[in-house]
Amino acid sequence: GKAERAASQYEYPQGSACFIQSVDDTMEDIMRLATSEAMLFKYGSGTGTDLSSLRSTREKLSGGGKPSGPLSFLKVYDQVANVVKSGGKTRRAAKMNTLKDWHPDIEEFIDAKQKEEKKAWALIEQGYDGNYNGDAYGSVIYQNENVSVRVSDEFMEAALEGREWWTRRVLDGQPCDRKDARTLLRKIAEGTHVCGDPGMQFDSTIHKWHTCKGTARQNSTNPCSEYLFLDNTACNLASLNLMKFKTADGDFDVERFKAAVRIFITAQEIIVDNASYPIKEIAENSHIFRTLGLGYANVGSLIMSYGYGYDSVEGRALCGAITAIMTGEAYEQSARLARAIGPFPGYRDARASGVAKPVAKDNVTSMLEVIELHRCAVREISDAEEFAHLKEEAAKVWDSAAELGKRYGYRNAQVTVLAPTGTISFLMDCDTTGIEPDIALVKYKLLAGGGMLKIVNQTVKPALEKLGYNSEEIERIIAHIDAFDTIEDVTDTDGSTISSGLKPEHLSIFDCAFKPFKGERSLNYMAHLRMMAAAQPFLSGAISKTVNMPEAATVDDIVNTYVEGWRLGLKSIAIYRDGSKRSAPLNTRKTKHMGAAEGVDVALDITTGADGLQNRIFELEKELAMLRSRLDQPVRHRMPDTRTSLTHRFEIAGHEGYITVGLYQDGQPGELFITMSKEGSTIGGLMDTVGTLTSIALQYGVPLESLVKKFAYQRFEPSGFTKNPDIRHATSITDYVFRWLACQFIKGYKEATSPNRTQPDLPLKEIVEIEKKAVNRPVSDLARTGEKELIDVITNHPSNDPAAAGQDGNGSGHANRVTVAL
After folding, report:
1. Of residues 59, 116, 117, 226, which has the active-site annotation?
2. What pTM value is reported for the model?
3. Among 212, 224, 235, 319, the one annotated catalytic
4. pLDDT band at 628 (very low <50, low <70, confident <90, very high)
């Protein structure tokens, strides 16, 4: 079919959040990509692009001079992401940029982010805010995108053997510069050691598992690196909570899991045809290849619940078998859909939008080759007696998927990936995200509305039951975890050991990604690689996962991790060394307190031996203490008998109230009255108490800022949505009152916290048309949120003229009043 522009984004909502886009070596297309990325960021999506098509700084322009190279345009894309990150209405921009190992500017690309990171460090040392959104990181570039180097098998072999590596020009492919491959690999590891970037993507491995080689090569990925496919394509994601398929008797319900896979694949397939896409090429290719991304979360908890550690043969066997069953059943369902409505158009015709000349006529051979690779990989799943039946089931599923595919083809070019599930895992009630182990048995999550949530792993109890502990022992161990945030024994303040009650041989079962504050154990980084290697052969795409390394990890450790990941057949790796980013609390404390201490030391050195000056200092200290004691006496500034006041009406989830603020002559608040309508004596009395306490505090000089910090975002009922555009949601009446006071009397608070601060409500033509059409709907179809206002109009504004109101004694007056109100 032909792609057409949708009349409204609400008619066909955007169903995908993962995109890969191309860029041509022309100024028009470079700027076109910036526009396209901005629109994707606006609607909460992420995008990835390979910049290897852009000429390097070592080549020539047709009109003379030298190109500015990919890095110069990377700055432009970075700032686009930065701007939309601040003004977007959904979430922060997500972006990936890659460069291939043969590009002449590869060395500058590798060094780019670590140079900017070191600039940020210098700014932090000088006292600038080291928070990620602070002035230090806000003043440097490349902070709004991930970068990865795409390397071939030839490059990795050259690096291991210490051979030279030639880059080549973009336009004609001729050799450009000679590099040392091992030095380049080490530079990549050094950048990762400093700031976590660049990551690595293994291009040859990716192409080996590419189902549509007949169309073109894969060049880049989405920002999280789990979706790998052709340029100008999209993928819609879905994830299953694996713990929901564990039965009461401890078995993994394979049949229910397979049924869920079939339902999800069918639903995702339907989404392809009922979604909108940002540009014409992506819309057309999404219908040509119909790529899907089903995955799962909570595998770390599932392994623990069976009494095995994340870094165990049994854990890898379970993960490998479940992943194999998921992808095999997904392809089998895709083949069933192909039998009913035909395979994806790109299966028998390799042409695609944006591809000038396909490599082959069709993708039948390459698709079936990859299916066979998946099927053969089942034999390599680790042997574990408890999960042998899952391995057997995986073999049956893949035999069926391959047989059906040979007869009917497949409806989808890809069906599975493993996404990070960082947000949706909480909605799915997961203890662990994606393929990750648990970060820690006890986690603290900062809430967007303020406050902190303590999250304790719910899988510890069933794991202990599986290991044979009785109820008293389990209660003791869980209480120990709750008290000390670790399952390990801890040392008390007097030097004695507080035992958790866990047997030493079971400690490895509860190892997590990070070392607990009062513990010593954590997973070795190789455990992450081995688990990824267990799942990767059974995925259409790749795995979005961070390989966590301790702060003490060296550059050589990172090099070895990259090499081992390549040998294990992974498609991409992202590494984060603990402490490689400068955190705000650490650096602020160092700047403010350590710097001050050094200044005092210098002053004391200067005055050493000056006895007279020292005595004078003691005298001044006594005078200051006496003055301070006088200032410490509180003084109440009462309100004048006649004063100006400000009254505000509010409503929280249907609960109405009024705020009245008495003002001093300078316009500052001095008293507060809170009146609730029809709320009874309890809430009304509590609000009177809050108002009285606030009034006394203000009159004794307590800053309003301190009161707001203390009482804003208090969470209790009643809570809910409000009609105030500056405070869309209140967690309690107290929260609303103090945030409203801050908006009125604290300079800059409203601008900093209002939901509309950078995204003004603009009139949208489509919404206006929808509202016009809604006027003629029957009363029964109207949104219920508007009923109260409708009743107010009807009951509070009756016509005094029966004739004018159309009253004829037969009840028609009520109907006319409803019509007028509508």
Report:
1. 226
2. 0.72
3. 224
4. low
